[in-house]
Amino acid sequence: MPLLTTARFHTTVAALHQLPRDGLVEVAFVGRSNAGKSSAINILCNRKRLAFSSRTPGRTQALNYFTVGPEERPLGYLVDTPGYGYASAPLEMKKTWDQLAGQYLQKRPQLAGVVLLADIRRGLTDLDRRLIGWVPAGVRLSVTLTKSDKLSREQARKTQREVAAELARTRPGLGDHVMLFSALNRSGSDELTELVENWIETGLPGSPQPPAT
Ligand SMILES: Nc1nc2c(ncn2[C@@H]2O[C@H](COP(=O)(O)OP(=O)(O)O)[C@@H](O)[C@H]2O)c(=O)[nH]1
Ligand SMILES: [Mg+2]
Fold it and tell me: Per-residue confidence at 176, pLDDT binned at 50, 70, 90?
């Protein structure tokens, strides 16, 4: 069975001390509120409402964990993070984001990779750039431009090239990892699935491979 289709809800983490302690690798999905994080997780896992597609952006201020892998031998977690950049979010909420998701991204040893999702119509924003700066050098990072169905193929490719060029200047190799994605028509979903599965299967960069069973 394809790895991500085994995904099931594990837990909601509202404070750092609640993070799982089992050491399984994690792949985090990050991005502005409304960028399409939950929709993308649902598509990758081939489930309609696994990650709740919230109609109230900025409301879900917690990390949501989904387990992947066989029931008896879980391989890792997908982590849906709270969106940032919700314009009318009270300051308290913004602080919570920095303390929880911000700290999580910067300090989590189990973090194997980060998928940053950005609405293709907006491109990268300063909040996205700030977040990219937080991802430690050893953690893999990929940028996915969501809602590609909203632009013509030509316009989408143009934005992809522009974002890639900017990222290539920011972080070595990152320009090669800009993908186009649509939860509406599923374009790009095979590519993103493959990437995330690969990150989970290969584990933490630099760590030994799990023994073959
Ligand atoms: N047209 C289109 N709409 C999308 C796509 N992905 C998400 N949306 C819509 O954008 C809104 C926010 O999506 P959601 O997944 O909840 O974003 P999140 O806040 O980042 O988790 C919802 O109304 C989705 O239906 C996409 O690929 N294409
Ligand atoms: Mg969401």
Answer: confident
Question: How many angstroms from the chain centroid is the CA of residue 200?
Answer: 13
Distance 45 CA to ligand 2 centre (A): 15
- Which residue shows structure tokens 């929709």? 39
Is a pLDDT exceeding 80 seen at residue 107? yes
User: Class of 3-202 per CATH?
Assistant: alpha beta
Ligand 1 proximity of 182 Cβ (cutoff 6 Å): yes
Cα(115)–Cα(106) distance, integer angstroms: 14
Q: Which of 30, 34, 185 to mutate for ligand 1's pocket (most ligand atoms within 8 Å of CB)?
A: 34
Of all protein residues, the one whose alpha carbon is nearest to atom 11 of ligand 1 is 34
Where do the structural domains in the chain lie, given as residue ranges?
3-202
pLDDT digits (tens, 9 = 90+) for 115-150: 999 999 999 999 999 999 999 998 999 999 999 999
pTM across the whole model: 0.92
